[in-house]
Amino acid sequence: MSLKVPKAQNLQLFKEGYKHLQGLEDAVLRNIQAVAELSDLVRTSFGPNGRNKLVINHLGRLFVTSDAATIIREIEVVHPAAKLLVMASQAQESEMGDATNSVMILAGEMLKKAEQLLIMGLHPSEIIKGYELASVKALAELETLSTSSLPSPPTKSTLATALKPAIASKQYGYEDQLANLVAEAALTVMPPNPKNFNVDNVRVVKIMGGSLSGSKVVRGMVFGREPEGIIKKIKKAKVAVFTCALDIAQTETKGTVLIKSADEMLNFTRGEETHMEKIFQEIADSGVKVIIAGTAVGELALHYLNRMGIAVLKVLSKFDLRRLCRVVNATPLARVGAPTPEEAGFVDVFETTEIGGDRVTVLRQVVEGDPDFDDGADGKGAKGARSEKTRTATIVLRGATQNRLDDLERAVDDGVNVIKALLKDPRLVPGAGATELELARRVEVYGAGLKGLSQHAVRRWAQALEVVPRTLAENALGGGEGNEVVSRLWAKHETSGGEAWGVDVEAETDGTLQSTEHEILDSLAAKQWAIKLATEAATSVLSVDAIIMSRPAGGPKIPQQSGNWDED
Predict the structure, then answer these.
(1) Alpha helices in 230-367 (DSSP H)
(2) Which of 100, 108, 106 is nearest to 82 (CA)?
């Protein structure tokens, strides 16, 4: 019999305040529990009938949204294992801009299935091996499920059809209007080679009031304010962009001026004024007709600029300034003075229009095919310069409240990102949970033919995929009906040619529909990434067997006193 050597009692390995959790019970199962909780939180927000969450972040801002990316960005997750899941879904957000919720739900479900295997006594490394095998098989099968692809070059109707499912999952019932707006805006800015499509060229401006039906696409950049001066409209103008204030320069140090006579007093301010006039005269002489200011515009400066017929627009957001510089092809200047020819930009139309009672300023470049396009009156034909112009389109959204507008903007962002993904990889797969169920069926069959312990993990992975159609059905039709729908789908997928049967959230017949006939299609690349990232997140949580947390930095917390401790 082996001799049990007693361990030393208080063996201290770490500094005071460290937490050390180890073993299956303490580390692995607790991690799985934390991740499951996070994925259950966003699970109810999945699909067209997903519920909204009301999130108030640490700055007190209010968000009402069903967009998983926004929810997890605004809630501060501190559990280390749940953070791994957050990182996976953020990777999906930056890569595809859509299907972040699927990553969270899939990873959470995979870990719930793994928990049962761990309790039965399977070793985590066997489960990881099985999950990786299943993931590789599913990605190979996914390639064969593509039913159609986005035609090239895309038209407005084909783009809108491809966008509808992505937008419907955020704004169910308004997907037709929003998809048309996004498709129109995307086609306006589509470069000759669609692969170079830049998401940043489709902007959103939110104007309170009216309803969604009043939204429209405006070609060019729209700013929700009027120009500062009296000049409101200019065509074919040179543009200078300044990031500094257009005002009399204040000195760093205080100085005292001794004035001896009335003449000196009069001349004192005049000197400053003439200097200022000289600077603006230089700017006007260099041919600049539009000035974009990043910060304040002084009254005196405005007076001179009005006199010289130069339009001034204040743009306070740095990001907008950067975008504007790209559109007009200008260099932002940090000093007030005449720009060199390389630093100055050019804009075809600078005008102020009215949208629903609000005055807005539009800057746009005119390209061939536009109603106000003229090919250089001097006959030289500035074609070469024109084709290189950055086109921008702005979607002007109207809505009753700020929260509503924010949510519409998120739906539009998702739509634009889907276009970007589809232009890279145009293949589409059946949506409405059909693809996931078909993959689950095929991986299940594959797992049944494997030898060894990893087959259990492969089959559990396949069961985990079923969570997508199940969640869609539960959110739309309630829990009891959801089970019925999923079992009907399994039956239909077993028949030949049943790959496209998905969940019908409107339950017009028996809760199932042919997703290809109803044109509910999802991007293949987004699904691919979601499966890859969810499996990676699940395996990395499973491969952890100890958590070692140091004491958070910073001094002792201030004791919270009761509300009226200083009252006598």
Answers:
(1) 262-285, 299-307, 318-328
(2) 108
The three-state secondary structure class of 322 is helix
**Mean pLDDT, to the nearest integer, of 296-324?**
83
Length reported for the chain: 568
| Whole-number Å distance between alpha carbons of 408 and 76 | 24
**Structure token pair of residue 264:** 């000196």
| Angstrom distance (rounded) from CA 205 to CA 223 | 7
Six-digit token pair at 334?
Answer: 């940090």
pLDDT in tens, 44-97: 888 788 888 888 888 888 888 888 888 888 888 888 888 888 888 888 888 877
- Cα(353)–Cα(222) distance, rounded to whole angstroms? 10
Residue 377, pLDDT score: 43
Assign 432 to helix, strand or coil. Answer: coil
Residue 383: predicted pLDDT = 40
Q: Assign 288 to helix, strand or coil.
A: strand
Nearest to 204 by CA among 14, 394, 29: 394
d(CA 230, CA 305) in angstroms, rounded, equals 9
Residues 194, 153: Cα–Cα separation, whole Å: 8
